[in-house]
Amino acid sequence: MVRPVRAVRPLFAVLATLLTVSTAHAQAPADSSARPKVLVIATGGTIAGVQQAPGTLGAYRAGTLTAEQVLASVPELAQHARMEAEQFSNVASTFITPAQWVALSKRINTVLRERDDIAGVVVTHGTDRLEETAFFLYLTVRSDKPVIVVGSQRPATGISPDGPINLLAAVRTAAAPAARGKGVMVVMDDRILSAREVRKAYQRVGGFTTGEMGMLGVVGGGGPEFFFTPARRHGLTSEFDLTNVDSLPRVELTFSYPGGTGPRFDTLPVGVVVATTGFTPAEGAAYRTLRQSGVVVATTFPSGDNVNAPPRARAPGSDTLPTNATAADSAALAARSGPPSVVAQHLTPPKARILLMLALTRTRVPAEIQRYFLTY
């Protein structure tokens, strides 16, 4: 007689059992008081995602599991830190706005300032906008305690989800004394990446990179190990204090392309970041008009990998002054071209926009904004 195949328990039931067991196992042993305390602030994303058909490669809804459920699914966390969870939001990261960046940064700054018992903070986040949120926090969290942003490329109920191992690596990094002073970091796929350089290269596991620079270390069996530290200004030394900032100036992001004529706005923004390798004559004229109208224009390489220093007295659509130029020559160029543009070094266009938004909360003088771009 052929025996019928026993039905496989639905994955949701398995997940529920796992969460129950995990909660029991996550109780720290008696000596847990010696372990550092890590606060996890959850914003949603794929790491908290649940599929319509669990256990498949099908569609899922990001930001479904709560912060407590995500933590409970990784019992090993209790072996490395005393855990606390806080739900900031529970959405796909495409719903994260600049106003939420400000609120999240203020919350992290408050926690790190008022609670000496917190060794570090981990922010769980969707990967579509992870690099932007991480860079904003890198510029505005004024503490030397580690802040780690982490996500996943596969949902919690998917086949081989990467969220649990990423979260474990992030918590271990946040709890490590060696992580202090490194600025905000992204931990994905056992790699420790500086938030200044990190970018999402593709939508698969291993898809986060830092280009030519920015990988600070790795997380192995023995925990996090650092090999490099960021050189640009960040953390305690940051000048971007959000205490009295409730909203960010409007900065638009544009692209230059063959045959381009430049942007046209019904209402002028405060600033514009343009990704370009060089302007058409029409684009040069358009951006010159914007600068003459008081709009701060910043240029960046489309790939974000350009590291050339800003050229002397050069602006889009204008000539470069010769090395023997006089003050009168400079004045004539300024009158003809308007204030010079700002040049970003090794920043992707979205990150250059973030830095310009923050710089504009302090000044609208292009020379001073250029200093920020050379410092951060």
Concise account of the structure shown:
The protein is of the alpha/beta class and 376 residues long. The protein has 2 domains: 11-237, L-asparaginase, N-terminal domain (Rossmann fold), CATH 3.40.50.1170; 251-375, Rossmann fold, CATH 3.40.50.
Strand order of the largest sheet: 4-1-5-6-7-8-11-12
Order of helices and strands: HEEEHEHEHEHEEEEEEEEHEHEHH
Q: How does the major sheet shape up?
A: 8 strands, mixed
Low-confidence parts, pLDDT < 50 over ≥5 residues?
Answer: 1-29, 312-321
Topology summary:
Layout: H1 11-25, E1 37-44, E2 50-51, E3 60-61, H2 67-72, E4 82-91, H3 98-114, E5 118-124, H4 130-140, E6 147-150, H5 163-174, E7 185-188, E8 191-194, E9 199-200, E10 208-209, E11 215-220, E12 223-226, E13 251-255, E14 271-275, H6 281-292, E15 296-300, H7 327-337, E16 342-343, H8 349-359, H9 366-375
Parallel strand pairs: 1-4, 1-5, 5-6, 6-7, 13-14, 14-15, 15-16
Antiparallel strand pairs: 2-3, 7-8, 8-11, 9-10, 11-12
Helix pairs in contact: 3-4, 4-8
Structure description:
By secondary structure, the protein is an alpha/beta fold. It folds into two domains: about 10-235, Rossmann fold, CATH 3.40.50.1170; about 250-375, Rossmann fold (3-Layer(aba) Sandwich). Helix content is about 30%, strand content about 20%. It is built from nine helices and 16 strands. The chain has helices at about 10-25, 65-70, 100-115, 130-140, 165-175, 280-290, 325-335, 350-360, 365-375, and strands at about 35-45, 50, 60, 80-90, 120-125, 145-150, 185-190, 190-195, 200, 210, 215-220, 225, 250-255, 270-275, 295-300, 340-345. The strands form four sheets. It has an eight-stranded mixed beta sheet, with helices on both faces. The chain is globular and about 75 Å long. It starts with 10 loop residues before the first helix and ends with a helix.
